[in-house]
Fold each of these.
Amino acid sequence: MIDIKEQLLVNGDRLWSTIERSGEIGLGRTTGLCRLALTDADKEMRDVFMQWCKEAGCSVTVDQVGNIFARHAGADDSLAPVVIGSHLDTQVAGGKYDGILGVLAGLEVVRTLNDNKTETQRPIEVVCWTNEEGARFNPSMIASGAFSGIYDVDWVHDQKDDDGIRFGDELKRIGYDGDTPVGGRTLDSYFELHIEQGPLLEAEGIDVGFVIGGFKTYGMNIDVRGECAHSGPTPMDKRKNALIGASMLAVEVNDIGWRYHPDGRSTVPRMQVWPNKAGILPEWVQITVDFRHPDPAAAKKMVEELKQAMPKCCERANVEMEIVQSWEFGDEVFDSDLLDTMCDAAGKLNIPHKEMMSLAGHDAYYISLVAPTALIFSPCKDGITHNEAEHIEPEYTLPSVNVLLNAVIERANRIDS
Amino acid sequence: MIDIKEQLLVNGDRLWSTIERSGEIGLGRTTGLCRLALTDADKEMRDVFMQWCKEAGCSVTVDQVGNIFARHAGADDSLAPVVIGSHLDTQVAGGKYDGILGVLAGLEVVRTLNDNKTETQRPIEVVCWTNEEGARFNPSMIASGAFSGIYDVDWVHDQKDDDGIRFGDELKRIGYDGDTPVGGRTLDSYFELHIEQGPLLEAEGIDVGFVIGGFKTYGMNIDVRGECAHSGPTPMDKRKNALIGASMLAVEVNDIGWRYHPDGRSTVPRMQVWPNKAGILPEWVQITVDFRHPDPAAAKKMVEELKQAMPKCCERANVEMEIVQSWEFGDEVFDSDLLDTMCDAAGKLNIPHKEMMSLAGHDAYYISLVAPTALIFSPCKDGITHNEAEHIEPEYTLPSVNVLLNAVIERANRIDS
């Protein structure tokens, strides 16, 4: 076992210039990014990331759903790797840090090991998961889900964006349809560093959060079916306006969230309408809803209330509704050994830290099903995220990257685990 | 004055084969059409129509908003013309007859005059108005509106479809940016034959309806503004979900319609959502609404109720709303002389007819502002329209075309009007 005498520190300027370079690819409307999965911008970012990884001496593989693994060899390269990562795709009006920080911090860990000519026993891999946001292809975290066996590879390939374009076709088009099988191998551990996407760390002046659990989340797509008719001659009692049914349901979903306030929350982020033209009653609407609550039983009750509201809305709007797709996450368990390792690293670095809950979905949730997993939060300004105004500062962020670095080194040198 | 000894009759088979040829251009999903204004399909239909008109000996001009006028010369070609027409564009899931019947019946009138070597004193023009449906460019009846001076030509050119493509650019692209000035000339009269888009004529077994008035219609686009945020961490009381505000307003609009049932009706045909992606609260929604009532005062009250509901929805959803565009029609007056002429023609042909109200918008509404106007209805199956199942039969329809023919001849030979 290699003896690390002291805590290492990352090169903050280098990490920041790397993040800033990423922030130039797929510009949004104002200060943020619009880098949807498997678009040209995503390809450009992936190409740059691949180049960086190769320059850092990593061997790079791409799996069949486009997940990129950059491997820094271990002293015993036959050992299961310690994996660090997150995602490089963003929302339509996304920030420059959500997901991106976790991937590029992983790269910075490798670069720091190189700087210090430090070899770990285990290999270290930096991973970029495809389409975490779900902003282009639904559901979110689709490729880490495939890695952990939740989704079948062919099913992932068949998912379509709002223009009807297949995930598999876009993956091939941008040249990231790798041949490595998805998942099915042992990871020693998985570390994901992410911005908090909430205001707590900043408000309390704490540099690092260790996530001990998530909000239980239930999401679903619901089809509402009515009938096209002319908005003039058709009297109210002959109408089957799918958009009215969907609107009634959206209001119900919102009311459910308020009944579980402040812990619970419910969202209608999306409504697809067809034909969506003046003068004609819409025939079809697909409405996306999600419910989140720290208490899984309460989250489940929120879904039950939705299911009770649906027939009422159907009757009132004279339409039909059907849940056509559903997903859930958030009651996965993070690893206590990794938590200890991270606390130890933070202690040695004298960095203030706390345990906390995650309110958003993360690739770490799915990976926790197949490997010991740690999720680390660093503060973000005012908790703003999924908004171009999302912002972080080096002094807010570097403490968490240094904790990540030292916890990863500690773990990568443990061969008895 | 030329003396017409007897009532002429159109060639029903020829008219029907013409309508069927039109029904092959811009096929919909099932049995109907999707021939949106200024698309390739619309261009193809216009090209075919221009060819037919030329073959019928007409001189054809196109004005600056793409309205096509095919002129059959009169004995005294300096007299103001009798104009017959409607539109050739359709809804996204439209039928093969809505609008189309009126244009092609006009062509059949000219062809019948040719068959009979009949010359009228006044010239007769067949017109195709651009973008009547409003299915691609809002508002509907935009080009007949421009002809009657409601809309400025440059403003019409600047209207954009849902993909941000300008009316003026599409008009040029398909080669229908004519150089004839829009409107500004005297029409002797305007006749529009249209399917009823309601069930009354069919139910009562009456072949022809003469429209004596319309439902007063108020339409508007309302912008709802919220703020993008993550659907997980953002608690209910920090949210500004534009889609929830819009949904609340949609439900209110629907409730208003029910309060005025059975005479009044209210519709939400359309909602544009941005960014409309899973995981993110929508920042902007544009909702289209329309209110219709045979009593103009009641229609106005419906709009007042909407305006009262808006602040309530804004407060409840923590968003802002603004009416960004509005339009109205439906209290125009149809011409009593033309009504007499049509009744007389129907009487001589022994065709059952009745006076009735129109519930839909028609180009005739706007043209009635600048010329004596008649709107004629013929039955359609089950009143179904703006739906691919829209259907008519020759035996239902030809009586109204023959009334049109003979009323037009009568009018085109009146030079004292």
Amino acid sequence: MAKFVIPRKTVYRLSLYFRIVERLFQNRIDTVSSAALAKAAGVKPTQLRKDLTYFGQFGTRGLGYKVESLERQLASVLRTARFQPVILVGAGNLGSALIHYDGFAKEGFEIVAAFDIRPGRAKGGHLKISILPMDRLKSFVSEHSVKLAILTVPGTSAQVVTNALVEAGIQAILNFSTIILQVPSNVVVNNVNLAIELENLSYFIT
Amino acid sequence: MAKFVIPRKTVYRLSLYFRIVERLFQNRIDTVSSAALAKAAGVKPTQLRKDLTYFGQFGTRGLGYKVESLERQLASVLRTARFQPVILVGAGNLGSALIHYDGFAKEGFEIVAAFDIRPGRAKGGHLKISILPMDRLKSFVSEHSVKLAILTVPGTSAQVVTNALVEAGIQAILNFSTIILQVPSNVVVNNVNLAIELENLSYFIT
């Protein structure tokens, strides 16, 4: 089935299923029921079954899904998404933290460069990558065919920097700033707002 | 209207609206149309209007919402959620990074202590808080009435640590580990999986 028909939230859940099925495969588990897989992914079994039909994967009643074949199919859907070079813009407190974070590289995403209005200011010890001035952004993105950017600038400059990213050819932005970015329809944005996540959780504390 | 009737995703959007309205208020803007507010929040105007009716806020046709009154009402819904002490468990790469991140404290959430199986290992320069051993978790949570935890341990130990958090009295967890946590129904979990966010974005790159 063509790539564009899978909705965004489904792709997100496919990433979850893939990680679970990878672990089952490594542990030499042959089959998994939709109930067990759904529970591990935190979704309803009906949701799981619906998601997996997007690429023609149907479980066998009473037997569940074959782990190896499911792993292979999910990998073929998602694998093309990996090994993307990523740039980070805004090497302040959070940006520097994320440059030090090794979880991206582990999953096939390498932060190849960072940009900041003050290239010298990255904090927290020795960095493996250079912090470049903003006027290098456009040529770097073009020379290295970068499509993906992590945005960790303050809310006040986030839209201006986003416009520069879009102009440079960036197609996808992981936005940590506190504003909602206005982008053309061919650019995708995922928002991670850590303070709002905490506010949301604490609202439900009794 | 009673607190429990507002769904989780609505509360998330209320946090977004609140931040926008706060900024408008600071900039001495009197009224905002539902179209403008919805655009700034990245939602549809119908969604915005529906969300705001949860606490009896109706815009005036042609005039929109009064910024000051909307700001006050959103604050009264969300403010109780702030100024919560937070603990962090897992002071590895990402955990240390988040301890250095000043965005939580800015929004009223103070990380009061961190815990790790190796209390000496936090990276990246001088920390303002102590890294305590795991056997101090239960007494600390109880003595300081902590309800909220940030979980940055590896996936392999995330469920075991979660069980300890729940037993200690933690009611809400911001989970950065790569597994879906199984928790009792009185405990809420929000998941932030940074690598999946990147994978999801890059799936949509053409």
